[in-house]
Amino acid sequence: MSVIVILLLPLAAALLVCIPFGKRWVPGVTVVFCLADLILVGRLAHQLVCGEVPTQLLEPAWSKWLAVDGLSALILLLIAFVGSTAAIYSVGYMAQLNLDGKKLRLYYANYNLFIFSMLAIPVLAEPTLVWIVVELTTLCSALLVSFDNTREALEAAWKYVVLSLMGAGVALFGFMVLFAAMRAGGAGIYTWTGLVTAAPKMPPILLQSAFLLILIGLGTKVGLVPMHTWLPDAHSQAPSPVCALLSGIETTSILYVIMRLFPVMQSVPRAHATTWALVFGLTSVGTAAFLLLQVKDYKRLFAFSTVEHMGIILTAIGLGSSAANYGAMQQIVSHAVTKSFCFFAAGATLLIVGTREIAAVRGLIRRSPLTGAALVFGALAIAGAPPLAVFLSEFSILKVGLAQGEYLVTGLLAIFIVIAFFGILAHVNGMVFGASMSPPPEAAHSRSGALVALRAPFSYRLALLIAAIPVLVLGVYVPKAMQELLALAAAALTR
Amino acid sequence: MNAATKELLQNLNALASGLFLLTAFGIVAMRQARGCLNLFIAQSLLLAASAALLGLRYDSGHLYGVALVNLISKPIIVPWLLRRTSPAEIYTRREIEQVLNIPAALLIALALAIGAYFVGAPLANAVGPEFRGPNVPIGIAVLLLGAFTLTVRREALSLLIGLLMMENGAFLAGISLARDLGMLVELAIATDGLVIVFIMGVLVRAVQKQVGTTSVGELASLKETPRVPAADEGLL
Question: Structure pTM?
């Protein structure tokens, strides 16, 4: 039952923000509802870890449409967490833009709808319905990406919509082939679990075609190379809290849909699902690592790092063993919390220096110690420096790869990760500690119309603080309940 | 239903599918934005016809539903939504400078259609003998032609039609492959198409206001080297 409430809360918030009750009402409602959702999702995950059977959490009449297992709960938890921190961050972001009420309501209505569409992805059981909510994530976030209404933001939003929907068209055909495969293999209920049960009887050629179509179609939205071209644009031009949502959790929740197909494919001999995952994963990591070196815009830097991390996760899944799956789950968690932190820090930097150009920002630590420290911390965390969350998860993936004897894959992955590490840190190091060679920003580098603040507002600092907690804690100590949830989620990737 | 009627229905369906493919070629070749929209409406009507014929052939009420939804949403609501949301300019545009000229575009389209046949036929065979109709290969062909339109066009309306054409193609294959997908899903997919038109219409209006053109393909300032002056673009 609580699952339905979890889905209804953001919808209710989207409706409530449309009531014009003044400028404090709109962000307030969003923050409160997002936090309530986080609590509910936490409770749901706790129930699952404590061994309650997933079906007990739902009323029987809903079980054809909704299903929650460990993997869904993990993704839900991440969405609710990043959704809440980004909602807190949005308060300050919107306050400094000084918008009229209509534009503010438009932002928050879209924000809540976007959260709703993402929360629906891991909860829905029928694949075609999942496809529809994936479409909804694109459509709800399109106007968020173009929110600044500049030429660049519009271009980014347009590319984002066209490429994502193009991928969605391919994926729709994939889901139809999947359905046909199910019918050809005899009866069954068209849900994720039904598919896993019916998989051995399905014609392999249909399953393989469906898998590839969905991998390519949805892979476009995950940002896998070579379908990634829209991602750095959209993930850098959107307002910073939206970037955190897009990069931190939207990509992950779409990747979740692809992950659901792996247990289905395991019953097909010579399906090569894991090989495809390795190919796409390593290509993405490698390409992103080299593209990272030559970026000129620090928000694009973090956007390319998202492509890199999606590749790492897919590579880990491609390794195939249950230990590797566990590593992939760890990586999903650490990437989501760290990447949202990075975009919060990048947003604070943008507020203070008023430019997105890496070369124009020097000596940030002297102008604003807190923002500079946050940016360095974020860069270290996302690049995988010990003892932070990403280091632990990347380390465990590499360890599993070596233990399995996949030396080529592990070696390539390690090299690419190291290249990306230096790429990110070289850029950020110059920004934060570099000798300031330029006159004060007000004179030279502030973009026309961009506000230059002296320090980050309170809501920025609060969001940064909350987001930093899991980044720090998960690097040194993974709580027992979290470990069990990760294990449950990893188990959903095998038959 | 006797064998002759079944035969007739199947032939009629083949005719509708063939014409469906023809409209897709028409959209690839057509430069006038308005003409593309008209061809797209004709294509959606043919999709509805194919769904109705298959519904009659296999006595499936569900397919009638698909036909009805397509009949209402695409020929009526899509043009209405476009009129409401986007600037009138998108209808009057002509694309004189395409990335490819028309004969080359048609040749590539032909190659895609032939390729789709070789992919689609084994796929349909694997599902079962009664799926061997023209729907699956033609559906895949139109899916690919839609993707092709998206890559060579720059005008907002042509791009939108390319997207909707991909969906039409997936549907044409789907009504044959996944005959009983469920009414809720079909309705949701149709609504989704309308939301696409709405959002893209809003975006086009914003682009037109901000940039002064609806030729969205010409927006290309976001690159790894965005600060380079425009003169260097020829080298990239």
Answer: 0.93
